[in-house]
Amino acid sequence: MDQPGFDYHIDIPGTTIFDGKQAMKGYALNKMCYSFNKKENRDAFVADEEAYMEKYGLNDQQKKAVRDRDILGLIDAGGNIYYLAKFAGIFKLSVQDVGGLQTGRTTEEFKEFLKSQA
Amino acid sequence: MAKILGGITTSHIPAVGNAIQKELYDDPYWKPFFEGYPKVHAWIKEHKPDYVINIYNDHGLGFFLDQMPTFAIGAAHEYKNEDEGWGLPSLDPFPGAPELSWHIIESMVADEFDITSCQELAVDHGFVVPMQLFWPGAPNNPDMPRAVPISANTVQHPIPTLHRALNFGKALGKALRSFPEDAKIVVLGTGGLSHQLDGQRAGFINKEFDQYCLENIVHNPEELTKITRMELVEKAGAQGTEFLMWMMMRGALGDDVNEITRNYHIPISNTAAGTLLLECAA
Question: Which of A4, B2, B15, B218 is 20 to 30 A distant from A83 in Cα terms?
Answer without folding.
Answer: A4
